[in-house]
Amino acid sequence: MPVGIIQPSNQIKLTNISLVRLKKAKHRFEIACYKNKVLEWRSGTEKDLDNVLQVPSVFLNVSKGQLAPKEDLIKAFGKDKSEEEIVLEILRKGELQVGEKERKEGLERMQRAVVEIVAGKLVEPKSLRVYTPGMIERALDMLSKEAAQAKQEDDKEKGSGTGTPAGEDGAVKKRDLPSWNGVVTNKSAKSQALEAMKALIAWQVIPVMRARMRLRIVCHVSQLKQAAKVVVASTDGDEEGAEKEKKGTVKDRILSYVEEVESQGENSGEWEVVGFVEPGAFKGLSDFIAGETKGKGRVEVLDMAVVHEKD
């Protein structure tokens, strides 16, 4: 007999639930969950399964109230697993089903989140002014179209046999640049924003650069002229370049991280420099200071992202 999904007062309509499906042993198993709770449980913010599961049972078809036969569960998951363990496996590994409306709303929320992050971290190189979210959104749309067109042209060249192998003429091929194909809902907004920024900087569909960090670096004067002992591995495999850096002084190496010095000077036995650093260099600089000064030097963040707001 079909089993209905019942709340205290009435039967729950399918539109009020989220389904999680897992295909295994030629069967599709389903569990019925409360909306918005599956992702919270998977991220660890929701611990109570009672707040996640509508019904602690496994179904073949939730909308029809068709429970999964015991023999199907044994065949798919093994005889040693309890139904509770099977429910947890489906909850962990299953595909979350959402309606078209929810999918569209989720995609729009993710789009806004990604655009806002990018807009806060990229600037116009000359003026250092920020772009509005609308301008960033249009730039990402342009980027998606350019990347798709470049891929089509590349595929056409490969098909005709006239394409130049990557790197053969010394030029950077568009197909080798970071690409952007739009937002997805199964990745974090932060990670997608980083991908979007890399692609925008590489393609330059609009003039952009990362907003630089403004730092204060303090080091004891007695350490400045010492030969740097901490060696940062060369990113391009240039051993000669790495050797040159190894011979530099502590002060030389610190200043090599700073793109633009705002001020520097000595006071009470300490040397202080305030300047602008590309965000990607911050960790290397911090590690270098920590390793060379044995905790006596420090790096202070004055501004996470230096920008000029639009009038």
From TrEMBL:
One of its GO terms (cellular component) is cytoplasm. It comes from the Eukaryota. Residues 112-211 form the Ribosome maturation protein SDO1/SBDS central domain. Residues 146-177 are annotated as: Disordered. Residues 245-304 form the Ribosome maturation protein SDO1/SBDS C-terminal domain. One of its GO terms (biological process) is cytosolic ribosome assembly. Signal peptide: none annotated. It is found in: Cytoplasm; Nucleus. It holds the Pfam family SBDS_N. The keyword Cytoplasm applies. Associates with the 60S ribosomal subunit. Belongs to the SDO1/SBDS family. This is Ribosome maturation protein SDO1.
